[in-house]
Write a structure and sequence with these properties.
By secondary structure, the chain is mostly helical. Helix content is 59%, strand content 7%. The chain contains 19 helices and eight strands. A two-stranded antiparallel sheet has the order 1-2. A hairpin with a 2-residue loop joins strand 3 and strand 4. Helix 8 packs antiparallel against helix 11 and helix 11 runs parallel beside helix 13.
Length: 464
């Protein structure tokens, strides 16, 4: 039995697996782009967004009298199957491709057409009854359908990061409350500065990440401005009057999101700055996350010859040669993810800059890069929270002793014991390697009760 069927396109005949729902242009993409291990089938959110775009388009075309009810119903049913996650293996093309996303668009058109043909009682490839280009792609171009589907998929995916980030914020905030009375030395330029609490340190971690949630959301909402009806370059050629607005309204209703039509479709078709902005927002978050992980590694360093202020959960043996060594592997892996996010932002920026005239043909690498960044950054945030933050403990006694030994507490006590006494105590502590705490008591500057009261975090510190 012949396991292939023959299909024809601009370049001629090509064999396609007989059972495949994709067609000749998808097969050409399979043959042409053997670049990465990232296939469209691995991004179901993108496939569903493509299906949503095609569903809104066919319903609009039917309402405007451009397509008959039989074909409309079959295409609609096929799109709804894809929206429910059916036929995931029918999207085998590489995400990195030339053609500004034409292969992705045609993959969707061909799969939807062949599903529709079967629903109408015909064989796959019997396109005279339902054509990928003339029916599924009616009133569209890759240049409006592809970026619209991509933006909608990225908007949905972006919710993963903000959800994960919100959970991480609450986890850090709980640790801030847990450590609110644990006094420690704050540091500037890695040198002892003035006392603070471990709670204040973790509260700062929590707060700086909390600020990124609305920032990410603000940039994600830019993805809801689309260019459906722009067709090839934004002039709307081959799309009937009223199509752009009606199709946009149908997408908004279908997705229950405030999708809106771009004000200038020529500008919107060539502009990729929304992708750059979101990549930049992820980069900003990555820089903050990496700095926090650097701090966690420093604070947990030791345990005998480092800062030893906190204990990170032990996740695995740390060495093949040094018995007993446990490394901060979770902050380390998050650091590395953050490096990747920072590099990915450059990829998106370069791809956006490389666009020419009325279209940016580099959108496929933008798509893959942003999907990758969202996925690995979300996973890193969740891993940091579950495998590290929630299990952190404080070495409270060690921290208190370090404060009492530190010259830095003289600064905190200066308003109480005066500059002259503070200078005398600081100088003697440095020269004799003595504890400031002990010297204040020894010189009868304060009683132990008074000193302990002044050094109580509740009395000495304020988070304002």
């Amino acid at each position: 039995m012949n396991s292939f069927r023959t299909e024809t396109d601009l370049l001629g005949d090509l064999q396609v697996p007989v059972n495949a729902y994709y067609g000749v242009q998808t097969q050409r993409a399979i043959n042409n782009f053997k670049i990465s291990n990232h296939k469209l089938s691995q991004y179901p959110v993108f496939i569903k967004s493509l299906a949503a775009v095609k569903l809104a388009a066919v319903e609009t075309n039917y309402e405007l009298g451009l397509i008959n009810e039989t074909i409309k119903d079959a295409i609609s049913a096929a799109c709804k199957d894809l929206l429910e996650g059916a036929y995931p293996d029918e999207f085998p093309i590489d995400m990195i491709q030339g053609g500004a996303g034409t292969s992705v668009n045609m993959n969707a058109n061909e799969v939807i057409a062949n599903i529709a043909l079967e629903k109408m009682g015909y064989q796959k490839g019997d396109y005279q009854h339902c054509l990928p280009n003339d029916h599924v792609n009616l009133s569209q171009s890759t240049n409006d359908a592809y970026p619209t589907a991509l933006k909608l998929a990225l908007f949905q995916s972006s919710k993963q990061i903000t959800d994960a980030l919100e959970k991480l914020f609450f986890s850090l905030d709980r640790k801030a409350n847990e450590f609110e009375n644990v006094i420690k030395m704050g540091r500037t330029q890695l040198q002892d500065a003035v006392p603070m609490t471990l709670g204040q340190e973790f509260e700062a971690f929590a707060f700086t990440l909390k600020k990124e949630i609305p920032y990410l959301q603000e940039h994600a909402y830019q993805f809801l401005e689309i260019n459906m009806g722009a067709t090839a370059i934004g002039t709307g050629l081959n799309a009937p009057k009223g199509y752009a607005q009606l199709c946009t309204e149908k997408l908004a209703a279908l997705l229950n999101e405030p999708v809106k039509l771009a004000e200038n479709l020529v500008e919107a078709t060539s502009d990729t700055s929304g992708f750059v902005a979101y990549a930049g927002a992820m980069k900003k978050l990555a820089v903050k996350l990496s700095k926090i992980c650097n701090d966690l590694r420093l604070l947990s360093s030791g345990p005998r010859a480092g800062l030893y202020e906190i204990n990170l959960p032990a996740k695995q043996p740390g060495s093949s040669i040094m018995p007993g060594k446990v490394n901060p592997v979770i902050p380390e892996v998050v650091n590395q993810v953050c490096f990747k996010i920072i590099g990915n932002e450059l990829t998106v920026s370069l791809a956006a800059e490389a666009g020419q005239l009325q279209l940016n043909v580099m959108e496929p690498i933008i798509a893959l890069t942003l999907f990758e960044s969202i996925e690995i950054l979300t996973n890193a945030i969740n891993t940091l929270r579950v495998e590290c933050i929630e299990g952190i403990t404080a070495n409270a006694n060690h921290l208190r002793n370090e404060v009492y030994k530190s010259i830095g507490i003289v600064t905190a006590l200066n308003p109480i014991i005066g500059y002259k006494n503070s200078t005398k105590i600081a100088k003697q502590a440095l020269e004799e390697n003595r504890s400031v705490y002990d010297l204040i008591l020894e010189h009868n500057i304060l009683t132990k009760e008074q000193l302990d009261t002044y050094l109580d975090p509740k009395n000495m510190l304020s988070s304002h």
